[in-house]
Amino acid sequence: MEEVQYRHEYKYPLTYGQVMIEDAKIGMVAAKDIHVGQGGSYHIRSLYFDDYDNSCYYDNENGVDDREKYRIRIYNHSQSRISLEMKQKKRGKTRKEICTITLEQCVSLMKGEIPGEIGEKQALLRRLAYLMAVKLMRPAVIVDYDRIPYVYRQGDANVRVTFDSNLISISEPEKFFEKEATGRGVMPTGQALMEVKYDSFLPDEIYSVLQLSGLRASTFSKYYLCRKFMVR
Description:
- This protein is an alpha+beta fold.
- It has an 8-stranded antiparallel beta barrel with strand order 1-6-5-4-3-7-8-10, surrounded by 5 helices.
- Helices cover 24% and strands 38% of the residues.
- Helix 2 crosses helix 6.
């Protein structure tokens, strides 16, 4: 049986000035993700699900350690690859399960409907369908932002450092594929988010370059930030 791989993940709110500095420093030791465009970044849009009791939201607010979230994700507004993802946090570490879904399946999910056909290799979609039937899991919010990603792989070290900006909350699930969909900015003006993810250890080189000891990590997810004005 294949061992489940969990990763460490830390989030740091930064000013744009700090982002420019950290970006320049990490760029000296890590490479940009191969999927970035000419501008060195890409756009991410995710449609998150929650149940009738908003359990995903309150689990994050209350710091529940063993929790999971479901989301549909696309990049650069493209419909060519649509992914359903489950992100789980357990004992302070995270892991993801991913399966691709069709456009027709995605449209059904956007409407809060269980897709009519689920493929043999879509176990994750089958699990979401079960939660939609039993716990009334439905689309909750669209999380929209731009990302600058770096990857560092040396020996056993596997590190990913990303800078997320222009974080927007969109309350209408039906706008998931609308390129010009507007929403509400959820971070203070001039602030962005740096995320540091790694497997078993964080190399001293990365730790010292980013000077993480002088930064304060955030305990809240982008999903939580995008919903906190909607749930009250």
